[in-house]
Sequence to fold (368 residues):
Amino acid sequence: MQRGAFAGRAAIQVLGILAIQALASAQDPVWERDPRPLLDGFVNMYNPCVVEVDEAPRYRMWFFGWAATHTNVDVPGCDAIYHARSDDLRTWEVYAGEEGWDGEGKPERWVPVLTASDRWYEAWHVGDPSVVQVRGRFFMAYSATSRHFEPVEGYPSTMVQCVLGAVSEDGIQWEKGEHPLLWREGDAAEPEPEPDRIGDFHRPSLLYERGRFRLWFDYWIPNRGVCTGHAENRRSFLDEGAFRITHDLEEPVLENWPNPAVIKVGSQYYCFGDPPGYPVPDGGDAWQSRQIREAVSEDGLRWEVLPFVPPDDDAEGCHVPQPLLTRRDGKTWLYLLYATQVGTRRGDGVYHFEYDRIRAMRRRVTGR
Fold:
C-alpha cells in the first residue's frame, strides 16, 4: 500500500485517547481472535507497540528482532527496532529506508530505525520498544544490553540489561538519550560476582499522564525470578536520573511477571504479561508454561491478577503482549497485539523459540 492510499482518509477524525479514556471501563470478557497475521515472513520479531495518531496513516507500530537473517548479520549488534504503519490495523507496510515502505512482506527490504551502538551497555540487544506521543513528539523507552560475557554469579542472562530512551519527531529518526533511563548503579561491562544482586532492568512499558511519565519494567530478583517494577519522571524525559523507582525493589508491584505492558482504560489500569504457570501438556516444552495473562489495578501499583488467556489453537506460545485502545466502526476496542512462537510447527522434533507471526485479538469496551 502506498502513501497516497492513506491520503484520501486523512480528513477522517477519530476520538482521541483522552476522549476514549473518558468512557467507562466495562469490557466484554471475550477476546475476538483473527488468525490472519498482521506481519509475518520474518526470522524472529515481536513486541508490536502501536500508537494511534491524528493524521494518516492512523496507526504506527514499532517492533523488534531479526528481520531477514538470524541475529541481523548486516545490522550493528543483534536485535534492532523496526517501524511500520497502517490505516486500518490490518494492512501494514514496513519502513525500508531509501526504498520507502515495503507493503509486500519482504523483510530483506526492512531497515531498522534503532540499532545497537558502541556504548558498552547498548552493544548487543536493542529492543522492546514502548512509545507514547506527547504534543506531537514521540517518546520511546527501550531495552538495551551489553555483549554476552562468561557466566557471573548474580547475572542470570550473562549480560548487563538496562532501559534507554529516545525522542523523535516522525517515529523514524530518533535522538537517543546520553544516559540510561534505568540501570543498576555499579554495573560494568566486566562485572564481579554479586550473588544477591537485584537488577537487569528491561522490557519497559511507558505511559504519560498528568504531566508525568510512568514506566513499568521487569527486573531480576534472586530466587524469585523476573518481576515487575514501577518508576516515574516529572522532569524532562531524557534527563539523567529523572526516572525514580517508586518502591523497594525487594517488593515488586507484580511478582513473577515478565514483559509487562500497561494501558489505562477509564479509571483502571490493565497490565498484560506472559508469566509462567500455564498448564503444560505432557511432553510439552517449558516455553508453553508462559502465556498471556492480565492484571487490573486502580493506581498501577497494587494489582489483582486475573486468569491466563489461552494460546491460539495453532500456536503453542503466545507472548509479549502490547495493548492498544482505539475506536473503530463506531465502537471502542481494546486490542492486544502479540507474537506466536514457531514451537513444533516445523515438525523436526525441536521446539523453536522464534516468533514468526504478529497477531492481534480484541474485546469491546462499553461506555455509559
Remarks:
- The chain has one domain: 3-366.
- The longest helix spans residues 3-7.
- Residues 1-25 have pLDDT under 50 and may be disordered.
